[in-house]
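Structure ticket #2291
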Amino acid sequence: MNIFLKEYLSVLKLEKNLSENTIQSYRNDISSLLKFLEEDKITDPSEIGYDNLIAFFKALKNAGLNSRSAARYYSSLKGFFNYLAVNKYITANPIEKVSTPKLAKNLPSVLSINEVDAILSKPDTSTMLGLRDKAVLETFYACGVRVSELINLKLSDLFLEEDVIRVFGKGSKERIVPIGSSAIEWINQYLKKSRISLEKKSKSGNILFLNNHGTKLSRMGIWKIVDRYVTEAGIQKEVHPHTFRHSFATHLLEGGADLRAVQEMLGHADISTTQIYTHIDREYIKQVHKDFHPRG
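Resolution: structure written out below.
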């Protein structure tokens, strides 16, 4: 059967123009199946059936293969069997009956309310950059914005008297997001005492949060701000800027917020994306039960 594999890989290289690394990945995945089938003395593609493929994927799982790797194997084998079917090397395509391996949903890390408070208390607001950092972190948690949305916030996007800000999300889609009184207070202080000093007329433009060069903060700049205060707060779990967005959504749902409202605030096109936070909420509830129930 290696003849069929060699022919298929040649097509991928010459007609599909795939990279050597991608072709090597296909070769490894398909070769693993062919080696597995040798135990059943299968030497022709037409002899491969649904049961053989199910047994192969079961063997991968028993070997400790994760769902993402299993999905990659499935994709490689699907391409190979589709090629065999199109070229009439097989009359029935066994991969069509095999379900696509489901990717495990890794729940994002979430901060507790106490952990958020600990982080937000760390910036030294008596300094120019410390005050900016405080305003950045407060806005992150108050609005659940993405990093790209935060660094692109403009002065003209602030409607603080109405307790909202305007955010431009993926695809430049505009949404209005509520902002709490604490974040409003720190943004106002930053505008009065810090931004005015950071601003460089020719560089700053209309951008809200500026670096010490008077230009827009970068993604790495935001990451460094978050990492610094997480470390100072003594928090051991892995925390990145997006963790504030996860925590924002989770804390709202824990407090009884409507899922549709949270979807709107996060700017999710599909509510199924927002529903992952209900899973986090359930995990939180289970942990509370375990910690406090007398027979937990």
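Closing remark: The CA atoms of residues 209 and 216 lie 6 Å apart.
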